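Entry 12.
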Amino acid sequence: MKIRFCHSCLLLLGMICALLTVRSGLAQSPLLEMADVVVFPGQSGVEVPISLSSDQSISGVQVGIAVDPDRIILQYLDLTEGVLEAISVEFLETTIDVEEGEATLVVIIDSTAPFDQSLLVGTGALLADLVLDASSWLVPSNIEPIAFSDGVGQPPVDNLVLIDGIGVVPDLANGSLSVISQNVLLAQSTIGVASVGEINHEISLRGYNVEDLQGFSSAMSFDPLVLSCSHASVEDTITDVAGAEFVEEIINNDEGYVILGVLMDILPPYAGQVIPATGIEMEFARIYFDVSTDLTSSIDTEIRFEEDLGIPPISNVFVIQNQSVAPLTIDVTIPIVADGVFLRGDADSNLRLDLADAIINLIYMSNACPQCPIPVCPKALDVNDDGRIDIGDGIQLLNFLYLDGPQPQPPYPEAGVDPTPDNLECLL
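Predicted 3D structure (tokens):
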């Protein structure tokens, strides 16, 4: 009976192995794929999607990438939009070597059997975006490889997909960076991130022109509930240096748009000044925006190039050889961070005013309870907004709550940022 049982087991094991072999033979090899991108010389922040396809669950992945560092400047690997962002992993590391032009990604999702934390990605799942800058020395018609490469980094990383803990060499589809011969008009936030209530956040209006420019117009829209445009300037830009004779801005903060018109040579003696075609991206102008103080949370907002804005309608145009040419336009998204948003008088930061706020205010002002927690937003305790915290603030809050006294100064009754900056902190 024992021998027969073992023999049966062996037969069963053989059948299982045969089935697994068949299954393995039917499974397709994993595929790592790099996208092709089209850029202009000097373009920054280019995102190159890296995707993975697999009909089997993966327990990890290694990626090695190499580019020509003289032509492509690697910045970082962005995982925020990829499939790895939504799962927990045991190990994750990315590296960038700008000088060598190498990038690596190593992820271990699950290192031990039964690999129940493995990920079934399917077809074309985004792993990461490779963010890079195109060298300003690139010329139109250049095609630069963005290639998967084994043995890059320290320690060396090979391209590998882990399936049930076993390394499988994937198929590789390399990408490329192509340089366009096209006029481009783009907007770029100078510092990248804005703050609620920020004044004069700078947007750089930039261009790449393949021929000399006699002039240009830009027409940009924005959300008037989030931004208001204060002014535009060409000072110290190529427009200024090249001697523009006509610069005119039109700002409409009610409808949310700003228009800029530039002519290089409009007055005698008509010397023929132009914005030269230098072969690199240049700054044409700067446009300044104020961020609303009414925002209570962090958001992203867009500034977009639009056609036919204003009366008469103005579009985005380059003037080249007395002809109007429509450039490629690239919008900008600005993350707005709501640091320092508070409700005046709200000492305990629960977004309502009551007796507890008055008590905390008086205790904090008098230092009557040294062991009590310090309010995270002392600025909120400055009820009368005189730039200091004293007994008058607590008394005003009590009068407001119980004796029909004056209400706290803004931001109130809605949370916001301080419209009158001072030295008081708010760490919200």
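Annotation: The two ends are 75 Å apart (CA to CA). The CA atoms of residues 307 and 315 lie 4 Å apart.
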